[in-house]
What does this fold into?
Amino acid sequence: VDKAGLSVEDVQHLLSHGIPMSEGMGVIVDGLPEGGAVLRVPYSDSLVRPGGTISGPVMMALADAAMYAAILGRLGAVIMAVTANLNIHFLHRPGKSDLIANAKILKLGKRLAVCEVALYSVGQSEMVAQVSGSYSLPPEAGSGG
Amino acid sequence: VDKAGLSVEDVQHLLSHGIPMSEGMGVIVDGLPEGGAVLRVPYSDSLVRPGGTISGPVMMALADAAMYAAILGRLGAVIMAVTANLNIHFLHRPGKSDLIANAKILKLGKRLAVCEVALYSVGQSEMVAQVSGSYSLPPEAGSGG
Amino acid sequence: VDKAGLSVEDVQHLLSHGIPMSEGMGVIVDGLPEGGAVLRVPYSDSLVRPGGTISGPVMMALADAAMYAAILGRLGAVIMAVTANLNIHFLHRPGKSDLIANAKILKLGKRLAVCEVALYSVGQSEMVAQVSGSYSLPPEAGSGG
Amino acid sequence: VDKAGLSVEDVQHLLSHGIPMSEGMGVIVDGLPEGGAVLRVPYSDSLVRPGGTISGPVMMALADAAMYAAILGRLGAVIMAVTANLNIHFLHRPGKSDLIANAKILKLGKRLAVCEVALYSVGQSEMVAQVSGSYSLPPEAGSGG
It folds into this structure.
């Protein structure tokens, strides 16, 4: 990599201050494995919908933040990277526990990064939601082709 | 239709009390045209991301609520209908104004409803985001095949 | 527009010679309305799957060709434009008749074009499939931002 | 599993006879690992688009066939299962070699199966395309909830 990626603390700071909903949800950056990111939303009664499960918009917001974190962790503070597309399949109801997003960069081009994100509920083995999406990268940010 | 749909007031009540993020965003049901729904998020500085535009998660949450509202308006209080899939393309930056979601039901089957949603920013002619998605309907809720 | 778009005949030629599956399916360019394209696949028994309806892959191939045609019609012979993403919702079974794709460009940026496509079956009023997708544009091809 | 799944030979037979495009592409069922399927399209000059790479529609058709094969392998001859939704991200150009689809069932509900598919080009380490999608299951076919 010719660009310096960011640390967990840096990414945490950018998410907490840069993405309004992210702060309200209490998103925590658990780690930045090579080419990816692991984020967590602590369980809170304020995030549930009827039936007692964490709402869909919270899952989408977390998945979006996880893709953004993975890109920041890889490319550095490209804070103007913006989501171009996001697709989510809701699979199984999350339990009353923390929600984990495991994001992985599938492609890092000059202009577009594509990621996939698996969402899990702590204590359940089944994936809660499957997400894929792309981010438009500002000029000079990307690598490859 | 053999099931009675809901009024604007009924749908507004279900959204405000049933979807936590929806209440925090101040979602307003502007209308329930035949087979669709029009929802609005009033502009607020608390919803913007760096660069001054309404954040992606707010758009996804609004689009999801608009699909839900369109289904409630058509089928009645099927509050256990759940999002199966949502796909969003972010197109143009929204302005510093209210965000409007125009949802339309494309298919209403026994088990699945498919909708598309166009998001607009008040005062801009270009679509801000294009969304499509499907809702799983609880048994006995759907119609057709 | 500062770039000259192509005529129906030009686009027909590029599709027939450039996209192998397109030729096998007999894709016809019916028209290139402003910012869009209308394509047709003549009904043929060789395209159906069990149950007698035109197969999903044929619909996806037609939708992809329609997005490509809309972009060629608007930007000129950017034959190296490539699909970045495609999302399809299958809605209603097509009949034993020609399949029509109505593509519309939603965004034409410097690097990415986003389109939506409605697929219809001649003689049916309901939409058969709803498609959205994005094309990566080669450098110097796009316009706007 | 309370339903008997199918063998590789059975699935191969259903694909070759049931899906017209699949036969034209020469799709081979390489295997049916637990909860998934591995399919292959042998490289052929007739499948390439300008620039010399296997065309997008071939990849979409293969991914769709792989999801179908995974479901048949798990549930038995539910030949009336139909694609409800398919989303594809094109990542890297495939080489001039066989194309492999690795499909995995993420959720098997009563009414809907959700799968993801990774497409690879033989001899390349990078994923060529990432696909996710859902199949509507005929009554009595699904399991779980």
